[in-house]
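Sequence in, structure out.
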Amino acid sequence: MRNLDFAPLYRATVGFDRIADLMDRVLTNDLAQPTYPPYNIEKTAEDAYRISIAVAGFAPDELAVDVKDGSLHIAARKATDEAERTYLHRGIATRAFERRFALADHVRVVGATHEHGMLHIDLVREMPEALKPRRIEIARTEGETRVLEAKAETVN
């Protein structure tokens, strides 16, 4: 059941090939998703989101946040060598990691903060003016055809 044929979708729609590619990518990912480090995704406003990642033991200069090809990449590498330390119990993992989050269209990263062992990444969805709903004025003419320019007006 993992092999789906999206050919009928491509034949019957125009411009939805990205959705089919996204579904195909999700279905082909490995089932074993990494669980380290733990993270939260929260909606902070109508078009604003925050990803919070537990990065205890990492300094801000040991973390990297990048946006590449429509996805958010978070990586951490421990800079100091802890070979000289002797642990009786080690429960705080500071191993290197890399997490990736696929970003939807028109979502951009607006900032990142590191406080109290948490990395907070703020995102916002900005809808372009061309995609916002508009009201088109309908002109009444008698016997002649005119082309009117549409007025951009926000519709709620």
